[in-house]
Amino acid sequence: MTPAAWLVARRALVDRPWRSALLLLGYGTGVAIMIVLLSVGDALLDEARDRNLVAGGDVVVLPEGVDPAVIKVNGVTGLFLTIPNARYIVRDLLDGPRFHAIVAAAAPQLSDRLIYVRVRGRVVAATASAGIPSLDRAARAARAVAGGVDSPADRAWLDPPLPELAGRLDHFHEPPAAGEMAPAGGPPSPDRAGWAEWDYFNVIDPRSHAYAYLTLLAGANGKGAIIARIRRPGVPLQDVVLPARIGPADISTVSADQRVGPARVRVGAEGYRVTVRDPRLRVDLRIRPDRGFTLPPTEVRVDGAISGYVVPIVRGRADGAITTAAGTLVLKNAPAYHDHNWGTWRGVTWEWGEAASTSGAYVYGNVHLPRGEASEGGQFGTLFVWGAHGVAPARPAFPAPSGAEQTERGGLMAALPITRITYTGWHPGPAAGGRRVRAPAQIMVRAASGPDSVLLTIRVWDALGSRPLGAQAGAAEAAQAFLQLRGDADLQGTIGGRAIAWQGPAASETFVGP
Predict the structure, then answer these.
(1) Which of 85, 201, 291, 341 has the largest count of CB atoms under 10 Å?
(2) What is the Cα–Cα distance from 411 to 163, expressed in whole angstroms?
(3) Which structural domain range is residue 147 located in?
(4) Please, are residues 462 and 209 in contact by the beta-carbon 8 Å criterion?
C-alpha cells in the first residue's frame, strides 16, 4: 500500500473505530458464507455421483420437485415418496423404443420404508427395502440381493397378464359424493346427475372405409345406454341407441369386465371380447391389444368438474361382426382402438384424435371445462406418440404385410405440448340436431418440446354429427354440434433425434358452433 493509503486507513480506524469494525465484520461474514456455499456445492456434486444414493444406477428418477438430498438423508418428506405409474415408466417408457438403445436396465426400488412387524404378540417398528432381483443385478444396484430370484409377483409386475393389466387400467369408478364435486369455496353440487362413465370402441376396415363406433354408457341413478354408429359404403348411416338399466352387480370397480343391459365386456388372456345381444343390434368383437400401446389413467378436478381418461388399447386388432337391420359389418384383422372416460360431462367439450400404423400410434386431446378453460396441457393439449421396437419408420400403413410386425411391442416415445391446431377447408357437413353444420376437410396439429417436434396432418374423408353428450334443449351447449371425423393421418417429425414418418387411418372429434 502507498503511504497515502496507509494514512487513510489509519485515520478511518482511529476516527471511526466502530464503523470500521462493523465493515470488517460484514466483509468477513460475506467471505465465510461464500466459502460455505462453495463447500455445499462441491458436496452436492459428490453426492450426485454417488451410486448408493438410491441403491445404485447411473440415473435416479424422482417425482418432480423432490430434492435428491431428502432421499440421501431419509428426510421426513421422503417417508411416503412413490412414483405414480412406476410400472408404466419402467415397462413402456424406459424399456420402450425411445430409450431402449441407451437404457441398459431400469430397477424400481423401495428404500427404507417404515413397516410394523407383529412378533409374538408385540408390534415392532422396522424398515424394509425391496426391488426386483433380476433388474437390480442388471442395473448393478448396491442393494441387490445376492442369489435373489424373481418371484411370480415380480414377473407379473414387469409383464402382467392382460386381465390383470386391464383391470388396473379399465375398471369403472364410484361417482363422488356431492360435496366432493363442489367448487373450491362454493356450495356443494346439487346432485350427481351430470356424472357419466363409458367404454368406447372404434374399429375400421381400411380397404372399404367401413367403420363403427360403440359406446357402453353408465350414467347416474342406474341409467345406462348402448350407442352404436355404423357407416358402410353405399348404406345410410346406422344409429342405434339402446337404453339400459344398470344393476348393482353389473359394473365392476376392480375389473374390466362390465355389463350394460344386453352388452358385455370380458377380458381374457387373448384380449377383449365385446358382445351385444339385442334384436336391434348384435355385436361380437374380439379385440387383441398390442402390448406397450397404452396410456395410463389421469383425472383432473377443477371447480367441481371432473374429467377422467385412460386408453387401454391405443393400437389393436379386431375380428368379428356388427349387425343391424341394414346388414352386417364384418371385420377381420381390422385396426381397433379403445378408451375409457368418466366424469361430469355436462357442458364439457374436447378436441381429440387417434391413429395407428405398424410403426406406431398417436393420441392427442384436450378437455375444455364449462367455464371455457382447458383442464390440462395448456390451451391446445398434448400429443402422445408411441413407437414399436425394431420397426423402420418408412411410412408403412395398415394392414400390416406380415404377422411379425403386428406383434411388435411398443412404448411411449413422447408427450408433446400442442402448439397449434388448425382446421381448414370448411364446407357444409353432416346434420346434427335437425340442422346441417360445417365440417373441416383437413386438420393440422403441431406439437413440440425442445428438439422434439411433430406435424400431424389429417385429411378428412367423412364426418358424422350429433348433439353433445348431455346437452339439454335451450342450454348453451345445445347450440354446438359434436363432430366425429374420419380421415387419413400423416405423422412426420423428429423425436429423440430419430426421424418419424408414417401414415394410418385416423379418427378425430371436435365441436363446432352454429
Answers:
(1) 201
(2) 19
(3) 68-158
(4) yes
